[in-house]
User: Fold these one by one.
Assistant:
Number 1:
Amino acid sequence: MSRFEYAPAPESRAIVDIKSSYGLFVNGQFIEATDGKPFKTVSPASEEVLAEVSEAGPADVDKAVKAARKAFDKVWGPMSGKDRAKYLFRIARLIQERSRELAVLESLDNGKPIRESRDVDIPLVAAHFFYYAGWADKLEYAGVGDDPQPWGVAGQVIPWNFPMLMLAWKIAPALAAGNTVVLKPAETTPLTALAFAEICQQADLPPGVVNIVTGAGRTGQALVEHPDVDKVAFTGSTDVGRAIAKSVAGTHKAVTLELGGKAANIVFEDAPIDQTIEGIVNGIFFNQGHVCCAGSRLLVQESVYDEVLARLKRRMGTLRVGDPLDKNTDIGAINSAAQLAKIRELSQIGEDEGAERWSPDCELPANGYWFPPTVFTGVSQAHRIAREEIFGPVLSVLTFRTPAEAVEKANNTPFGLSAGIWTEKGSRILWMANQLRAGVVWANTFNRFDPTSPFGGYKESGYGREGGRHGLEAYLAH
Amino acid sequence: MPTKDTATQRLEVRKTYKLYIGGAFPRSESGRSYVVNNAKGKFLANASQASRKDARDAVVAARKAFGGWHARTAYNRGQVLYRIAEVMEGRHQQFSAEVSASEGLSISKARAVVDASIDRWVWYAGWADKLAQVVGSSNPVAGPYFDFSLPEATGVVAVLAPQDSSLLGLTSVIAPAIVSGNTVVAVSSYERPLPAVTLGEVMATSDVPGGVVNLLTGSASEIGPWLASHDDVNAIDLCGITSDDEARDLEIAAAGNLKRVRRPAAEDWSADQGLSRLTQYLELKTVWHPIGV
């Protein structure tokens, strides 16, 4: 099958109005940072500077936490659940109204294909606010007692892979439960969080209920370690998660952590083959593989290995890598130079350790950060590419003979975030789901998300759940 | 000090108080023991003083038992816990005497503590087949999937049992962990370890598989750091740690493999226990199952 040729179909950038510089969003206003250096956020697809963003230092973080505390004590805490719900519904609607703008902004700043930001990220953002809005006046039914109480001020640190979706996962349940928040977006993707700050203004959300402090690790550390933060929520790497777990030791702070993964995507010989190939591609190449729950370890039953590999390679040959704003693009840009270097390094290690590397012929743009869809075969469980999270479009393929062997290999990892099962046999799906030590198990699908569906890991993939009633529980003292 | 039953003049056969690991009763591999006195300071027994190596052996036993225990039906686990209560009832007098001596309670107050402990096993036994309904969910996702979330045991739980309440407290920290399918390595109260050893004997003679509950007598301060930093332990209850600094250090050690940590807090063992210790050691698994023809 030869590749279809498409004319470029770029989404217009005219819909977004990016300012040349942004302050911090504290107490309902954009303010200058007082003790940090400004930094630049670039489009990873072109390395074009999009805006200058303020770095919040410890004094700025303190200001934001004080604003959040005051809003918690005076406004948001005492407010009826019914009114909190209305603010959240308002925010959900504003996001829907501005969805195209937010999608373009997300793709510009993050590098993900517009098809994904438009059809997955932003609709899910609105859905999360809509879902949790409805909980705000029903907390006594959340299963944590008759009189559930918020923790107070939530300090939230989110990653760059789904910038606005992770913001929604953090802020929506926190506000519904009656907490106020200080949120730090990732340093490479701050723009949609700053647009969200404007949405809070448009919604007339009381000042201080949501505060956005931009910056890198130092800012995040100041936030997590601030003594007046009651609840810490973090999504990111397992190493940073460990550091956070240490830093809150001996304090009163409640913590939830969504960390790394190395998910097994398990293909049985009776799997529906076309659907499975799409699922494998979606599992590892969705969002350039910058997905903590990515199906990065493909386990294929030996009897269908040759067929699955041949079809997978053929399908990979049709993936279109390039301009994130082009509506035909399947794989966008790697989010940062640092991440690209990490993907290159681990891929090189894969080769050095003896695995066989393959990528389709694919022309990569001259500027920006790019990595072709890649598959490694001949991978053993001991290889680093089978054990470590690469967080890029790199798939490691292993084989198995029996369901028991598949389970053993799938569970042979310190992570436990997600897993996939491909088979036509319903009883096997449920048996496998029982055996897998992972927080989310997808059967004959992969990378599905929904605000009603709890998400989170076992073991070193972290603790706590986001989404659904369980995600709300994480923001209620109990 | 030989004692005689004055009615019969018969010399009492005393018990050797040992550890309970993997269903067996070893002495500490370290060869150490320590003197256990009653509340008035009078000699009761020598207890085994568990070491780092004993703790590691216990973790191995607990991990080995986890798969089988966790795979049992909830109904079966409920019955096994209920059986613990039944067997304890038959040893009521022995437990009462040990609690009375350890905690300095009158025999009638000690009996009430034993009553409450047995009742607590019954209470938790009943939770086995209800937890999934109370804390699980079916999730109405916007798509053609049956999406459901079920609680599952997190794995091996290290429990540093309360120092004060030697039986009721111990029961209240072990039962909620094992009822959902976890296995436990517990370090007893240091000064009041005897009821824990007897509880181990109950485990061995009820239907609890070896390794599901492992009981170490000795110092939580000494053994705690090895359990907190052990990579094959999934969660830790710091209940028996009384120093804030120690608790903080153990929480830091536990972060190494991201253990689920229960911090020490003021506890009322006689009160209703609620769900928090049960849910502390649960993972939630969400499964997306397709719907189609």
Number 2:
Amino acid sequence: MSSVQADKQTEEPLDLIRYQLDETVLVKLRGAREMKGKLQGYDSHCNMVLSDAKEYIYNETGEPIVKDCEMVFIRGDSVILISPIS
Amino acid sequence: MSEDKVKTGPSVFLSEILGQQVKVKLNNGVTYLGNLNSIDGYMNIVMDSTSEHVNGEDFVKTYGDVFIRGNNVLYISQV
Amino acid sequence: MLFFSFFKTLVDQEVVVELKNDIEIKGVLKSVDQYLNLKLDNISCTNETKYPHLTSVKNLFIRGSTVRYVRINPNAVDCTLLQDASRREAMQAAK
């Protein structure tokens, strides 16, 4: 790991996720899915727990399917991208 | 001759482009243009002022900060 | 190790596991290991009409890598504890 960035002063990418704890995030997932929810936990694999989450499943025909979930664990290997929602 | 040259390689490139404008292409074909904030050995990437492009140049969506999980990265290029 | 410990606190709770092949299984979490493989008891398929081949199965071992989501009872989760544990794990990883 340190081969790329040995300097500990500089920020690591995972720090961005840490700053989002207790904040609402957008998670883009494999299989044309997105999940919005409040970040309650994560680890280095991008396994995550979101609360008050909304899942959006996109298909060719216009409107996405929306599913609500109060508390959900997402396995990190499905994660493509994580972004804070302002 | 080659001894006074500092080490080269992918890691040098990656640290040189920190803070610069980059294009990141993912395995699924989507590209992201933005300002590179940080990167680690898994190729996890954080960018800001990012725009998402799906079919080549078609502009789709903008993000403030984004974290991209390294396993999805096909390449990173300086723009 | 964080989510291994997290799932251990959820043992005996009812969870819904959604797999990457879209099958959804509801059941009581009986055990978990470091790969987040799961053992469920008293299972039922929430979308049984679509996937009828698990109707006679009572309990199940799920390989962790096939899991997409696990839906959890929100009352079973201490959010502040989980947030703090995440920060602590991040600190440890940085060392």
Number 3:
Amino acid sequence: MHIHRYEKLWLIIGSLILLVFLAILAIQTFYLEMGPPSHAEMMDPQEVRESELFADAELTEIGDNEYEIAIVAEMFAFQPGDLEIPAGATVHFTLASPDVTHGFKITDTNVNVMVVPGHISKVSHTFHEAGEYLILCNEYCGLGHEFMANTITVN
Amino acid sequence: MTHITDVPIRHKGKAVTAGAIAGISKRDSRLSIANLSIAFIALVIGGAAGLLQGFVRSGFLELPSWISYYALLTAHGVLLVLVLSSFFSIGYLYAGTSRVLGGLADKTVAFGWAGFGLMTAGTVIAAFFILSGDANVLYTFYTPMQANPWFYVGLALLVVGILLNCVGMFITYQSWRKRNPGELTPLFAFFSNAVFVLWVFASLFIAVFVVGMVIPWAFGWVPTIDPMIGRTMFWAFGHTLVNIWMLTSISAWYVSMPKIIGGKVFSDSLARVAVVILVVANVPGGFHHQILDPGLSVELKFLHVIQTFMIIFPSLMTAFAMLATMERAGRTKGVTSLLGWWKILPWSDARFFALIVAMLAYIPAGLGGIINASNQVNQVVHNSIWVTGHLHLTVGTTVMLTFFGISYWLIPYLSGRKMTKTINRLALAQTVVWASGMLLMSGAMHFNGLLGSPRRTANTTYNGHSAASDWALYEMLMAMGGVILFIGILLLVYIWIQLAFIAPKGDTDFPIGEDYNKKDASPLFMDRWAIWVALATLSIAIAYVIPLLDFASGHSPGSPPFLMP
């Protein structure tokens, strides 16, 4: 099998670029902890609404401008509804679905995670800029999918 | 009717010389024509659904109450990515394999028709339940959303039909090898076999999932289902499907394009290496669709990112081989200037023009794919309409334009007609129309996705939210692109009808390129598919054993069904 000199060069350069690219991804993932949300914890979808974690959940301050909230993603709403937080606040979201698979996306941020029934998803974000952010479901979840949205207002 | 063993010509060497067998037996051609006919019907109906979606999403059109946006979306996905691509690849690969191996084996034709029957029945059943509004689950049919159980039966029949076609192809391939000991199979047959090996891997995942899990659950025999196992099995199938289209497409780039431009295959052996890497490394790529899923560890996801990136290597090889083929063709015609070979390519030959535009589209399409698969970067684009834009560049532009280009020689080859100058001009125009429609629509989708607009969502202003109002402009551009694309489909239908029934009778060849360097043969073990299947199984095991065992033993409570609608 003969490989042309130029092809060797092309493939070596291409592979090196690929390796550098992978190395950057690895550094971001493992040293800067920018990896994608990957929480592993299970919960029976039929018990989500009554569970201690999700029933009557509300925004709770757990530290200096640090909050947590448990949100039920269901057909076709996020419960509880619209949220309000001060600028600079870090919010830890805990999510679960009692029915089908949903998506949890906050526009103008990188918050984007799947909510698969049976699993609990977690994602955190610090809201530096004031404004009204749109939270929407970005995984098709049924005929009312396009109505599944909330806002989070940062003052 | 010619029995395969009656054909006197035995092809020596790696690439079958042009004209060795220019024709195709009526028996083999009927099978291909049947498959292609269904593919074309799927394109027209699926394309029309796409056009309507563009109008609905941009707010130009409100659908009557008996059909939802999501039914159209399901029809668009199932008919185009599943039905069109499978029927077309079977029709095309069976015809080409018959051409290079001197006819299909008797059993192959029997398996082919049985497969065709099951696939067609499955398609009709699935399409019926989609259009009657009983299967608004999209082509990914993520459980625990549930469609009418017979929709899944339709899908299962389609997949079993594909598996029968795989068996058919393997029979002809292996019987040729037995009759030609010590010889390499022709490159086209090698590609063809590779595509059907991938179909087997893809089909097994989806068949186990649909038949073993979804159907018992949909009929109510089993109360719950584990959605994560479903997502994982679906994408093992779904992403393999992507490489099935790609491998089918690049078979035309590697084998037919050189002949069309008056050159030769740049390197038969390196083409085979690229094919083998695609087959071995492909299936685990499915995991990059699950980068934002819960229940999979960061380390495991990174392993899958590495496995996905292995697919990039054969694409680099393909990029080099295509340009090298074109340059060599020009050099042998006496071109000495640096880029003169590019200018003298047969730009006015629609077969070539469609292929090269497809190749050019593959550059941004591939780059977008690398972005999507880049672990944390995926958070920026996941499930945004950027991904829809990416799909329309890869399958919508690269694969479709290649299929259209193939049809410009395949249809007249099968119908015993010739392309006229007028049809050729129309086909050139079709390519320009299609590429511009996709550029506009897919470009708008990419930008809109970066602004956060979700994919697979009907028209909504999210209560007049300012973020959503920024998307309106792009949604209008998407609809305009959709209109241009539908004009492209109408043009194409006209061309196909001409080539199939009206164009003057004559001999059209199925272009098969010869190897540039006869001495540079591949080792014979390249044809021993047991090796590649074993390596592919190993790479699948590395990717899938841990997560699937994890889900299966994780005492998942499971989900009851939620009927759609």
Number 4:
Amino acid sequence: MDAKFIKLLLLGGAARFYFCRTSLGTVIGNRVEFATPLNSHKRMQEGIFLLQNGIDPYQGDVVHETPLILSALSGLFRNFPQFLPVFYILLDIFTAALLYMMAQRFVRKKQDQQNVETKEYATDTTELQFSGSDKMDIPELVIVAYLFNPLTVLSCVGMTSTVFSNLFLAAFLYCLTKGLLLPCLLILAFETVRSFYPVVLLAPLLLTFSGRSIRSGFLISLLFAACCLVISVANFFVLNSWNFLDGTLGFIFYFRDLQPNIGLFWYFFTEMFEHFRIMFLITFQLNATVLYLLPLSIKLRREPLLLATILVALMAVFRAYPSLGDVGFYLALLPLWKRCWKFMAHGFVVFTFFIVTLSMMGVLWHLWIYAGSANANFYFGATLAFSTGQIFLITDLLFAHVKRDFCLFNGQKILIDGEEAKIVLK
Amino acid sequence: MGLLSDPSISTQSKLVDGLARHVRKVCLVLYVAGVVWFFCLALPEFNHGTYLSENALSPGLVYPEIRVDANRLAIQLLEELHRERTNHVSTTPHAWIAAKMNEFGLETHTHNYTLRYPFGGGKEYHGKNVYGILRAPRIASTEGIVFTAPYRAASSVHTDISPSVPLLLAFADFARRKNYWAKDLIFLVTEQEQLGMQAWLEAYHDGDRVPDANRTYLRPGNLPARAGSLQAALNIEVQDLEIDYVDVRIEGLNGKLPNLDMFNLVQRIMAREGIASGYKQAPRKKRRHSQSVYEQNLRGMLSMLASQASGVPTGNHGLFHRYRIDALTIAAARRQTHATLKGNPGSAAVPLLKAIEGISRSLNNLLERFHQSFFFYVIVNNDRYISIGDYMPALVALVACAFVKAYLKWATLPSASEMEAAAAAASAAGSESELPSPGEAEPDEPFDLPYGSVLIYLVATLAIGYLCNVLPLQQYFLEIPMGAAPLTTSVLSFLSLIGFILPFVVVLPPGGLELLHVAFLLIYGCAMIAIGLLNFALGFFVAVLTVPLVISLETSEENTKSSFRNSIRLLTLILNPMMIVYVIVLAMTFYQFPELPMQKIMLRAATAAMDASAYGLIDSVIYGNFLYFVVSTVLLPLWILCWTLALSKRRDYADYLDFDEAPSPQPPAPPAQRQAKLKRN
């Protein structure tokens, strides 16, 4: 814990606190890009109010937060509503701190691994290897990317519950690097029951903890299922009803709310004939979960954290109700792969994509909803381009990693017949 | 798939390097392509004939039933109104209008509003609108159509359009007798030009909202009666009952347009009644065969875009667009030539009344809001249009210059070795010993670009722009007993002066200029896209003017002649937003008063430009016109960045200044500089 780390945390907190005191919070709380049906602050308030009045929040179609979170926060919401922004800010800062520690641990591990393998590396690859200063630089970059990314700042200012999701994911990644199996399982199970998609993170977990043995993998999976069951039962006891399952997981899976967001679901499902709905639901949900899981797990079996990063990113693109807060979270994980950046060819293009599409989203939303002259197609065009940009980023990261891995052992300058070699992927 | 999975190991692409060497040529090609595409749009092959796509409108399906008795009523009312006008020279005869509406059996109400004028110590103006509702016999009051006529007092400086009120009342009397209305009809007479209309619309839509006393300048009050959600509106401005032609005006606030179907509908009905009507219709002069079709089309396009660009509505209809109500104005001009065309005054207004009846019956058929046809279009001719898909490529090609250049700049940003060489050269040449730290990591480390200082610089310039928007409305400035125009201009010119000085005071660390250049290009591109989507005309004109400068800007000192650099600096100075506004106003003044001596014209243009900047500000706070915001908060910061890049002051020889952060602009005392700002005349 050095002074700079504390300073950064304080600065990030101060920035959030400043924006909380402006009217920005309500604006962001109403923007579809940040507040989805799943994470909006308004719905959380509604759920807590219903819970306090002894009404099952899940009978209506507004609340999609788990009962445990609702009951845990109900005291805070009722008694100290003026401190809520501070609470959210503290959680966000805690997330940043967890990411920082996770990054430190990760770099240390990498360096250890490097020390073992160092003889096998090619000669001209020092810039691909983790250097001494990375131990400080990478965690710092991670924390800066999390604390000062406008997307996470605004998501926190708007008090979306993405703040919780990010905290849980960060805690999961931290426990994963630290090798704490049980907390890892519990956090993952909790987040899975909350928002379903993190179930894919079981893959990096298995890769980390089970080693090569299928039996222990099977055992861990069983344990995970048990954890999920325990948490569901705990949720059950809050209201003594299973309604919450349909209100949270069912709501996510069946995609009942067609409110526009930055994802790909809403447009297709508004356009679709009703009798194809089930088929496309399954297709879309498969795409968001298991489609990339197996090939990526096989390819990245030696890099569970990279697998986790990419899965989190894919989740942010393909999930049913994505928000910009999710995007901000995985962007903060990119500095972990700083040594691959050399091979990331599309960084600038992706950045341009991001700022152009984000500014267009605001304009087109205005034209569609307020001015009434544009329509849903315009807005969806912008979000589609945004998703495309994200896909570019993810594939770029993957290829950069593959190239780095190759070059690390084979050298960066490979000439065949006097011409520069190309890697053929087969 | 090659795009995503480029198999080469090296990160340097030959294509990019090659292109980077010819970045100007590439951009120039794009620029020329965009402009050429725009000019091509006037060719008949590139635009389409208009058609009605909303079938519910079915224009002209019913025979007009309005007869000559309505015309007689209009004439009689006009005579009465003229008598009233002798008593009410500078006010509206509210009582007479309300009495007539009551007499015709309309549900008549009046609406009061107050304008709290912020400048010059603050004054209050009061106004009053009169409106009558004809409840639909066929349905509950869920939807409505508005017919409005602006009333101008006899003392007004504008053209007399008082016959609109009798025409409106005569039509109201006719409509009262019919039982087929499926929508409530509102007949509204507003005063004080657009202010009354804006107040009425605000009162109609959020009259029950409690206004924030400090922020709102127009207090619309509330309405005693409403008529459901408004579907469409027709604004009538008639100079005389005997008309020559009808000019259909469509441009609304911020360049928004009504649905193309509405325009087509009006054109069809007018054609059926045999009225010469059209977009930007002008009195028929001597036939001039010199203009080819292409030239006519191009003139039509450009004049439409020019009137759209300012964002000021061309009539009261333009304010409806903000509430998603499609509206347009039919402005009828007085018949000039009595000698050849001897019309019968007893039935002179019948065609126009029939047209209004036809339009209202078509609107009455609407099952839902206008949504079928285009909202984004450019009219080239009365029956030809260009849709958004056809005109957007022109703007996209212009904006693409910025992005292409940004990418190529980024790809060729100075690498570590070059930077070190430059640093070594600088330290050898200058007396100063050391450079600030960022470069001195390990030798293999890529050179760290000064992201932080560039970011701070960007924020500082944006803050200057933001202050332009906020500062003139601060309480302590408003209390100064000074007119709106001098106040706004002095604040604006002070802030642009700060922007002018900023690059002299703050010198970015090495690599900062190149990074700033990339950032500038990206921000410029995004801003142009956003402006172009909201108001194509404004975005396109700004892009056409500024893209050449953006292309020619260069920060590197090698292989550019100093004369070229100086001419770019001069160009940047000329393209200052305030200068552009002044030049536009100057051109308009010259056009209007060609007989005046040059000196006088320049002086007059200066005061006009100052007034224009104040109008822009008032427009933005009362009507929500964003032109002022765009010029002060988007274009001015961009200009400051441009100016910084054109100057290219480097740390090498100005090291000793050691200003790392930009000074935040303090609230200024009223300075003496005067410069012109913001157009709108």
